[in-house]
Amino acid sequence: MTNQLGELRPPLINSQRACELLGIKSRKLFNLTKSGALTCVRLAGRGKGAVRYDLADIEAFIAASKETGRG
Fold this sequence. Notes:
Blueprint: E1 13-14, H1 15-22, H2 26-35, E2 41-43, E3 50-53, H3 55-68
Antiparallel strand pairs: 1-3, 2-3
Organism: Lacipirellula limnantheis
InterPro entries: DNA-bd_dom_put_sf, HTH_17
Domain Helix-turn-helix: 17-64
């Protein structure tokens, strides 16, 4: 996948990887997603389906946390 500039873009990441990048537990990730602080992509599947996160959204959240001192 590439972005608008033609640069390679990583695929969507799973919840475990998102937690690793953010340095948080899965419950905190769930709460951030539920509150709308982080957006996710819900993929169709059995039951609730899979939840994935766009790396750009994770990076934007980190940048915003640095600017505001929140996270």
